[in-house]
Write a structure and sequence with these properties.
- The chain is mainly alpha-helical and 90 residues long.
- It has one domain: 434 Repressor (Amino-terminal Domain).
- Helix content is 59%, strand content 0%.
- It is built from 5 helices and no strands.
- The longest helix has 23 residues, at 12-34.
- The radius of gyration is 15 Å and the shape is globular.
- The protein starts with a helix and ends in a 15-residue tail after the last helix.
Length: 90
Amino acid sequence: MSNIFEDLGFDKEEAANLKIRADLMLELRKFIKSKNWAQAEAAMFFGETQPRISNLMNGDIDRFAIDKLIQMLSRAGMEVQVSVTLQGHQ
């Protein structure tokens, strides 16, 4: 499975964390867009500020921890599942 963040030069651990956050953020963005919400409406739903939703919609990945994204997805009625696989190690 390719990870764009590794391709950009991040070490494996950081790349994995960034990929997870990016994937979770994309799901939240899709949810917000599917509701046709303005950022203020999304902020009210998630109990966040409008600038925070702006950060989410603009993909500002550094501003969101995995646990916060999971909380937001849960509030949206989505279940997050984790899959772990062993990759070849030398």
